[in-house]
Amino acid sequence: MPHRRFGPLECPVSVIGQGTWRLDEAPRETAAAALRAGLDAGLNHIDTAEMYGEAEPLIRDAIAGRRDEVFLVSKVLPQNASRRGTIAACERSLARLGTDRLDCYLLHWRGSIPLEETVAALETLRESGKILSWGVSNFDEADLAEALALAGPGRIACNQVLYHLEERAIEHAVLPWCETHGVALVAYSPFGSGDFPAPRTAKGQVLQKIAAAHGATPRQIALAFLTRKPSLFAIPKTSTADHARQNAAAGDLVLSDAEIAEIDAAFPRGPKPRSLPMI
Ligand code: NAP
Asked: How many domains in the chain?
């Protein structure tokens, strides 16, 4: 599993990670086993959020005794992201996760609380060592510029955004902005959150053909495409140990320029939408 620099951080983060939204809908032991299988296969980047119900305690149990192997990310809800609320939310997440620090802490999406307050709280958390870095989620290029102006360079570790084969809006302006400013771009819902191209469709056939050439699966090809540039990461969610191992194996796939062009043609990115899509 290849690892990359995560924005300004020196520590290596797996290109493919593990999402945990709705992971608590699976039987607890099955879900924990999937996370451990992912860790065993090198998926050290585990993404969660205070919003994700029982996911944080589930992760605490799954990574017991292995905290140092994990690059642990959680998120504060926008309605909690005031100066004091952000710190209180982080402390609740730390308690639920059974750890004394987060590797990265994100604002889940922009709400009505001034960004200045959230950034000040995130900096306080970073200075106190409760978080090692912070980032944002669902930010467009204007939001990112505002965060950069408040925080200064080298502070925003990542922007976590909706990015999958059928939803490539971030390629217009958000990805170039992140590349210019050394911010990691983390693709959430990389399999369309359960809506992956069916094998019998024309698009599915393109993926099947490329997959066959690599002895891989179409989902592995999708992950390889979504992480084809050095600033890109992806965090698929799975509650199945075998799927976690398959997702990890995608980290080693390298697509040729011709294959990237074929995928690009089959899944065109379309015009730039007025606002950044999110789910
Ligand atoms: P996703 O990862 O796009 O898709 C998950 C679906 O793919 C599940 O049905 C899963 O089923 C299936 N799957 C995973 N690996 C597979 C494999 N190798 N073979 C076949 N099926 C596979 O969906 P997501 O949960 O929406 O997104 C991923 C993560 O991104 C979330 O869990 C969360 O951490 C993050 N996220 C962030 C935001 C945000 O606003 N920041 C929003 C949405 C999501 P099985 O469980 O059966 O494998």
From this structure: 1
